[in-house]
């Protein structure tokens, strides 16, 4: 079981930037694709971004394309989500996730392990 710990959430204003990070506990970090999901109050958890095991392939939800960037550091066992031009509708709890190495988890059913989540609140 891989233990994931997110950090970097907070309260920002619309148009601001925020960077989320997720640290994984296992040395076999490169065996996994990684991803980010989010869940707003009263809504289902939704896919945000994913990256494959070596960082060559990324996927994004249409709602964040051009604003968010996912990246990973296989030396530090971390995955990050750079969020720019934030909007109030980006407000949610953001979860780090582990999935298939080829493309990462692009849907929730592909996730094999979740982090505890970090709150992102964007005020208008």
Compute the separation of the termini in Å: 39 Å
Mean pLDDT: 95
Helix content: under 10%
Unreliable sequence segments: none
Radius of gyration: 13 Å
Tell me how many strands there are: 11
Along the chain, the helix and strand elements come as EEEEEEEEEEE
General shape: globular
Structural class: mainly beta
Number of helical regions: 0
**Largest beta-sheet characterization:** 7 strands, mixed
Strand content: over 45%
Provide an overview of this structure:
The chain is mostly beta strands and 124 residues long. The protein is built from no helices and 11 strands. The protein has strands at residues 4-7, 10-13, 18-24, 33-39, 46-51, 58-60, 68-73, 78-83, 92-99, 113-114, 118-123. The strands form 2 sheets. Strands 2, 4, 5, 6, 9, 10 and 11 form a 7-stranded mixed β-sheet that branches. Strands 1-3-8-7 form a 4-stranded antiparallel β-sheet, with no helix packed on it. The N and C termini lie far apart (39 Å).
């Amino acid at each position: 079981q891989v233990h994931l710990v997110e950090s970097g959430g907070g309260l920002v204003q619309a148009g601001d930037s925020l960077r989320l990070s997720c640290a994984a506990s296992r040395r076999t970090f490169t065996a996994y694709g990684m991803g980010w999901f989010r869940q707003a109050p009263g809504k289902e958890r939704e896919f945000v971004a994913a990256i494959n095991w070596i960082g060559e392939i990324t996927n994004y939800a249409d709602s964040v394309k051009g604003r968010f960037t996912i990246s990973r550091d296989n030396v530090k066992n971390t995955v990050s989500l750079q969020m720019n031009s934030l909007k109030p509708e980006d407000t949610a709890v953001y979860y780090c996730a582990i999935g298939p190495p080829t493309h990462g988890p692009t849907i929730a059913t592909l996730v094999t392990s979740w982090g505890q989540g970090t709150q992102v609140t964007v005020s208008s």
